[in-house]
Amino acid sequence: METYPAVFESEEQTAFRDTCRRFAEREIAPRIDEAERTGVYPRELRLKAAEADLLGICTSPEHGGAGAPLIFQCIAVEEFSSVCAGLATGLNSLGLRVLDQEGTSEQKARYLKPANQGKIGSAFAMTEPGAGSDVLAMRTTATREGNGWRIKGNKLYATGAPCSDFMMVAAYTDKKKRRDGVSLFIVDTDAEGVEIHKMDKLGHHAMETGNVFLDCALPADALIGEPGMGMAYIMKLLEGGRITHAARSLGVARGALDLAIEYAKERETFGKTINKYQAIGMKLAQMMTDLRTAHLHVYSAAAKYDAGSPTLLEACMAKLVASEASVSITDQAMRIFAGVGYINDAPIQRFFRDARLYPISEGTNEIQLRTIARLGDII
Ligand SMILES: Cc1cc2nc3c(=O)[nH]c(=O)nc-3n(C[C@H](O)[C@H](O)[C@H](O)COP(=O)(O)OP(=O)(O)OC[C@H]3O[C@@H](n4cnc5c(N)ncnc54)[C@H](O)[C@@H]3O)c2cc1C
User: pTM of the entire structure?
Assistant: First the structure.
């Protein structure tokens, strides 16, 4: 029996899931070992995904996207992440929606279209050493210089920055206005005054993460949308971002569960395969149930989002439930593998390490609970 039959899925969505699964087996799986070992993201993977029509899923067709609902992006992210979350992260172009919705036609032609075609990669840089959950504590500024801008600051943990061609960077254009003083800028990663250092981390070795130093002149048309609207654009993006982030947690949890079930059915102790012991069988049953709970959260949030309804509450809940499920399921899977799972080349420990990121990124789970409490009129 398949451990994870997707529920409430249309025929079109199931066919798309199959396409993503085949792509993951054909193009992602063979690239895992080298990318994990070297920490270098294989840029050609983006081209392969574009050739298979699996990039730019949510951006508009005029600029090389597919213009599909978010649910399709969730399916792709989940399927790719069930094989390798680090590599999958480079194929999720949801962040480009800001350019799609707010960019000028020149910005779309120069950045969005080639990104949708897999020719260039993008990153999103908001977090700073003193500004993670407390985004408005950011110190990066963009001030007028000549006809353009000078952007100065230090951004941390920018996913993909070392292996991308441009970043969308949040900076204060008017600090006194706080939330209404943040703007978004396009910064080329090879521009003079941009320094990107690769960060060493616990998991996601196949994806490069950047510590970014900026003291850089930008042209006037580097501004995305209106000045002072940066936080509004980011908040809009985060709603969908949290749902696709939850889909990634789901994929990682499923990848780990599948490995654990397979192993439990072949590992023998005391003359029996270990799945026959109630202690292991029940653990696996609980993991399957937790996965299903997370699945229902993710896809009901995506469906509501696609129906055009406000979804912040559901997005936070999906992010919370799916990321906690990925941590607990990968942890339980490690116990089932026991000694062999602790050895560095065991695939299960990659899932375990990767999952540790999900309660932190896209807003920590404490911040999700804070938002849920606020939206639920609890505090
Ligand atoms: C591998 C990786 C990739 C990332 N990718 C990106 C990226 O591409 N772009 C980007 O901009 N950022 C990225 N991030 C940053 C990530 O979003 C932040 O790490 C996260 O928002 C938390 O910020 P912080 O680490 O500064 O923790 P802090 O904000 O310092 O929080 C520390 C602890 O305090 C808790 N806490 C803080 N405030 C409150 C509160 N009000 N109530 C209750 N608890 C609270 C937190 O939940 C946490 O437990 C990435 C991070 C990592 C590790």
Answer: 0.97
